[in-house]
User: Which sequence fits this backbone?
């Protein structure tokens, strides 16, 4: 389950469910990198771009590598300010752990029973940015039952 947790997290690093966000500052504050933000200012961040920044994730930042989240086979989380899929600080998503439990249980149940493949291996999904990141026309998949184990 550690590898599955890492695989899901790596997917959200590259394809965050909420690809961009804006906040307004209620009082003067300082960001983790030392940048001052004044009361009344609006600030936007683009987690989609952050997941692809070499300065944050290294030279392999565009590669899908679940192993980057593992330390001797165990899941190792990053700072939520580096990986903001569930936001950070006092606005951190309260449902984060429940979301991971649900994602991991669904993936494990599906993959235990079904083999999954792209319906069209040549198709390239077109991303659409809205409140949430989604694919134009969805992602067409083909499922087949796995053979019974002996």
Assistant:
């Amino acid at each position: 389950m550690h590898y599955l947790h890492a695989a899901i997290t790596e997917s959200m690093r590259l394809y965050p469910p909420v690809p961009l966000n804006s906040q307004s500052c209620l009082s003067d504050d300082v960001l983790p990198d030392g940048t001052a933000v004044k009361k009344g200012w609006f600030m936007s961040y683009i987690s989609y771009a952050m997941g692809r920044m070499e300065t944050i994730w290294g030279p392999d930042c565009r590669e899908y590598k679940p192993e980057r989240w593992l330390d001797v086979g165990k899941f190792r989380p990053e700072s939520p300010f580096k990986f903001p899929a569930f936001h950070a600080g006092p606005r951190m998503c309260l449902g984060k752990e429940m979301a991971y439990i649900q994602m991991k249980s669904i993936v494990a149940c599906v993959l235990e029973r079904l083999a999954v493949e792209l319906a069209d291996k040549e198709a390239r999904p077109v991303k659409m940015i809205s409140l949430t990141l989604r694919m134009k026309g969805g992602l067409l998949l083909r499922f087949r039952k796995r053979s019974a184990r002996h």
Q: What stands out?
A: The first strand starts at residue 21 and ends at 24.
